[in-house]
Amino acid sequence: MRICYVANPNSIHVRRWIHYFLERGHEVHVVTGRPLESSVPAGTFLHFVRAPKVPRLRNLVLGWAMRRCIRAIEPDIVHAHQVSPDGWLAAMAGYHPLLLSAWGSDLLLAPRRAWRYRLLIRWALRRADAIACVSETLAQTARSLGADPAQVEVAPWGVDLSVFYPAEQREGLRGAWGLGEGPVVISLRAMRPLYNPFVIAQAIPLILARVASVRFVIRAYAFDVECLKRFQSSILEAGAESRVSYVGELPEDRAIADLYRASDVAISVPSSDGVPQSVLEAMACGVVPVLSDLPSLREWVRHGEEGLFVPVGDVEGLAEAVVRLLTDTALRARLRANAIRLVRERADARAAMARYEAIYERLVGGRAASR
Question: By residue range, what is the domain housing residue 123?
Answer without folding.
Answer: 2-157+349-370
